């Protein structure tokens, strides 16, 4: 048997295979031993019928074809392994009819993942940004807590900005009724956008039980094109004016805001400061990862099969559809509102899909070069992490592979940052362990989406990518 492999510039591999007649004979013998156990022939126990009788029943060519199919599958799988070829999807087979007694030649063509050509990423140098929190930022967080604890007290005076008013509101544009609200609360603001732009300045100065009519212009960028830029006529009756009351910043507020976790304002400030600092450190780390990865992508050379980008775009659309479902909206409804077809939306996703594919290829290449691996204990840790949160993952091979792939990339980008920016001098051993756990949990989240939401698609793709099939007219025969 002779197998030659040619990797084409368009990210396809062609397997050129020559099989001798002796090898065809051996393959047909194996096929006969398999088929004879599946066929009932009168007068013989299953598996004991002679080959000549089975050939008369099924046809001699059928047995040779079955043998060739099995042989082709074996050659294909072994070649993928030996040549380190990663198929993207189902291969195509160029196989002539079998001529008895003659050597056989056929070709298999398969789209493949072509490894990226990395640049010298050790020459990339990035600076770590310092993470600092100011007292003003802590004050802003405290003010946010106060705003969430605000109370409203009815007042007998004219409405002003930052007050809350309750009113009946009827809005028309020409002959079209736009809105008809009863007992509707509005918090008056100088920054209102959307349909009711320009309303607040007209309501300021009104008192309870007062009525007013006025005209505004609906913004030209309003979503409804029939209303955008048109005049809107308002009829308003103010029912109630309420004034905002903020709690005092004291120890009592600290206890209420923290549900008793902190007994004084100083401890609450320290907690908020520490939390802001940790969030900023996380942001700095994430931005550094992004910059490092973008720098490596920029200096690398790629040869990407279009199908890989198409599949990534499809996966991104798939994930987006699940986000829409959480908002009780279908993908079809979203596309209808966006006035886009599915194909148009996929076209818009392609640049991001290509960026994502490049990043994945770069991380896989760096992981291989830096000898970054995932141990069985780490996979168990990822499964345990999810179980501890009350969201256990299915401990299947597909899920384990997805976890390993995602976590390996997480570890790789962390290693890349150490190479281009040096170790983080501010990270203690405990913080490093926490970061590792965060990375693991992030990897588990991605892997869960991959393994649970796209399991059917990926398993079908993998099956088709590792199997070949010869002419369907021989494969579809029913043997009884």
From TrEMBL:
Reaction catalyzed: [protein]-peptidylproline (omega=180) = [protein]-peptidylproline (omega=0)
Residue segments, region Disordered: 447-480
Coiled coil residues, start to end: 128-155
Keywords of the record: Cell cycle, Cell division, Chaperone, Coiled coil, Cytoplasm, Isomerase, Rotamase
InterPro entries from the UniProt entry: PPIase_dom_sf (IPR046357), PPIase_FKBP_dom (IPR001179), Trig_fac (IPR005215), Trigger_fac_C (IPR008880), Trigger_fac_C_sf (IPR037041), Trigger_fac_ribosome-bd_bac (IPR008881), Trigger_fac_ribosome-bd_sf (IPR036611), Trigger_fact/SurA_dom_sf (IPR027304)
UniProt record, GO biological process: 'de novo' cotranslational protein folding; cell division; protein transport; protein unfolding
Any GO MF annotation of the entry: ribosome binding
Keyword Cell division set for record: yes
GO CC annotation, single: cytoplasm
Every Trigger factor C-terminal domain range: 265-414
Pfam name, any one: Trigger_N
Compartment list: Cytoplasm
Record-annotated PPIase FKBP-type domain positions: 158-239
Domains (record comment): Consists of 3 domains; the N-terminus binds the ribosome, the middle domain has PPIase activity, while the C-terminus has intrinsic chaperone activity on its own.
Known function: Involved in protein export. Acts as a chaperone by maintaining the newly synthesized protein in an open conformation. Functions as a peptidyl-prolyl cis-trans isomerase.
UniProt similarity note: Belongs to the FKBP-type PPIase family. Tig subfamily.
Annotated protein name in UniProt: Trigger factor
Organism per entry: Ktedonospora formicarum
Gene designation: tig
């Amino acid at each position: 048997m002779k197998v030659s492999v040619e990797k084409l510039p368009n990210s396809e591999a062609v397997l050129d295979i020559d099989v001798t007649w002796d090898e065809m004979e051996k393959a047909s013998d194996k096929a006969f031993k398999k088929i004879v156990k599946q066929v009932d022939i009168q007068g013989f126990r299953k598996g004991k019928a002679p080959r000549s009788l089975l050939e008369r029943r099924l046809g001699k060519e059928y047995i040779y074809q079955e043998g060739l199919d099995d042989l082709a599958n074996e050659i294909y799988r072994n070649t993928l392994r030996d040549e380190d070829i990663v198929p993207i999807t189902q291969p195509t087979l160029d196989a002539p009819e079998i001529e008895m007694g003659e050597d056989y030649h056929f070709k298999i063509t398969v789209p493949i993942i072509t490894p990226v050509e990395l640049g010298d990423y050790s020459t990339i140098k990035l600076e770590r940004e310092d993470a600092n929190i100011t007292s003003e930022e802590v004050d802003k967080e405290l003010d946010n807590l106060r705003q969430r604890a605000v109370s409203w007290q009815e007042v007998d005076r004219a409405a002003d900005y930052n007050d809350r008013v309750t009113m009946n509101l009827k809005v028309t544009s020409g002959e079209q009724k736009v809105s008809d609200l009863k007992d509707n609360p509005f918090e008056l603001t100088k920054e209102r956008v959307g349909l009711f732009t320009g309303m607040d300045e007209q309501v300021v100065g009104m008192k309870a039980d007062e009525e007013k009519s006025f005209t505004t212009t609906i913004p030209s960028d309003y979503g409804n094109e029939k209303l955008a830029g048109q005049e809107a006529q308002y009829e308003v009756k103010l029912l109630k004016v309420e004034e905002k009351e903020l709690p005092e910043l004291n120890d009592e507020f600290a206890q209420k805001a923290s549900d008793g976790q902190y007994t004084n304002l100083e401890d609450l400030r320290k907690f908020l400061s520490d939390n802001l600092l940790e969030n900023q450190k996380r942001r700095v780390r994430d931005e550094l990862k992004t910059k490092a990865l973008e720098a490596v992508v920029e200096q690398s050379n790629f040869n990407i099969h279009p199908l890989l980008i198409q599949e990534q775009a499809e996966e991104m659309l798939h994930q987006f559809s699940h986000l829409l479902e959480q908002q009780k909206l279908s993908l079809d409804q979203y596309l209808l509102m966006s006035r886009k077809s599915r194909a148009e939306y996929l076209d818009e996703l392609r640049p991001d899909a290509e960026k994502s594919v490049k990043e994945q290829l770069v991380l896989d290449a760096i992981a291989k070069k830096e000898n970054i691996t995932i141990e069985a204990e780490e996979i168990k840790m990822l499964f345990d992490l999810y179980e501890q949160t009350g969201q256990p993952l299915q401990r299947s091979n597909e899920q384990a592979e997805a976890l390993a792939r995602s976590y390996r990339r997480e570890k790789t980008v962390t290693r890349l940052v150490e190479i281009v920016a040096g170790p983080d001098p501010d990270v203690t051993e405990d913080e490093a362990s926490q970061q590792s756990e965060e990375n693991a949990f992030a990897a588990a989240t991605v892997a869960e989406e991959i393994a649970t939401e796209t399991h059917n698609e990926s398993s079908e793709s993998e099956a088709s990518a590792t199997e070949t099939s010869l002419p369907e007219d021989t494969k579809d025969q029913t043997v009884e």
